[in-house]
Amino acid sequence: MQATVSAYDGDTFSGTVLTDTGIELPFTVHAISDTPVLHLRVGQRVRIETTGSGAATTVTKVEFGTRL
């Protein structure tokens, strides 16, 4: 799923993304710990993976690349 970083805290490596469907989802350090992501910036396009649905949706992976 495609999204845009809407907030990011470089100290805690957590933040929120806004999906292309208009849903804002939080993510924690665990979503980027297994990826080469070292820093994100607000407005950056990312690809995310999630689990759950509705209010129980959790971001499990945040990554970016040239094919977004």
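Above is the first protein from milestone M3; the second protein from the same milestone is given next.
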Amino acid sequence: MSGLYERHLAVSPDWLALYYRHPIELTHGEGRYVWDADGNRYLDFFGGILTTMTAHALPEVTKAISEQAGRIIHSSTLYLNRPMVELAERIATLSGIPDARVFFTTSGTEANDTALLLATAYRRSNQILAMRNSYHGRSFSAVSITGNQAWSPTSLSPLQTLYVHGGVRTRGPYAELSDDRFIRACVADLEDLLGHTREVAALIAEPIQGVGGFTSPPDGLFAAFREVLDRHGILWISDEVQTGWGRTGEHFWGWQAHAGNGPPDILTFAKGIGNGMSIGGVVARAEVMNCLDANSISTFGGSPVTMAAGLANLSYALEHDLQGNARRVGGLLIERLRGIAAASDAVREVRGRGLMIGIELVKPGTDEADPEAAAAVLEAARAGGLLIGKGGGHNTSVLRIAPPLTLTVAEAEEGAALLADALRAAD
């Protein structure tokens, strides 16, 4: 592996991060397991950053890809595309947005970029509200609305971004409040902020912050925000790149935990729908989606092969009730992890929903984030045969756990035991 690593370093940017002191090359996978070039097997609890949603080498998806590739691989959006129309119809219905229109992209970054284009054009404003600790992608516009310093390499932007409270429940100035008072304080902060700025185009928010460490507000926060936003004509963009397709178990979309005042105006998605194929997209009500007054296409968005994969993957997820499996197995897993955490002074909190779980690490006896401990647990888990991720706000001190949604009870128990060993080894 050292030879490939040296070749990687010679041709890749310094900022293209790799996990582990001795990076691994994954060569194949099956179900919830992957193998590296040295033949080591790992239980995959990160799924290519929440992207391998159903399973590795899922036969239904690989068959759909192969059959479509044998017919035609590419045509672009300049031609009618049956798989794209069929997938768009299903997503429009599932989105909960009335009179929905769907535009496909190649990534979540591009989806959020498109949502910002729509919102600013529709509202004739370049001002955006975003959440502190947020992450929305790697493009110039997405970086400019990211509220996480570790993932924001520049402050230059054509957008004016204003950050509001609420994305992190257990840290910050409102952490000690009850849920109801927390929501009221965040709404008051939003009201105050809008009293000091010009017209705002949209609020963009992740229902559960992904890169930020799987943090989330109390249920109903964005419904309360919506009352304020509607009075000002401000759009709500729900970034569902990591929370969509049933991963949270309780809901198909993350916004449904905040549904008191209806669906968002714009919804963005990506990652899990393609099960590893490059699919992103935007759903918006027709009035918003159709507001652009210039030509626009997508060369690779809606590719026949990726759309065929998305259709097969979505069908599998719905027919096998993977949302229900995420709720049941995820509930068991989070309880096991909380039991393990109770024996460790280094764990501040175990949080999450369904198969989207974060374990925040701190220096024992303090509330201070401990990124070194997170890195050590990541290494120890890999050595034991478990792949996990990490993230978090001010410091990368949260272990991110997001297995494929077909995870079995036995695999959840296996992963919890491996993680317990890794936490002990890192102490």
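Note on the second protein: The mean pLDDT is 96.
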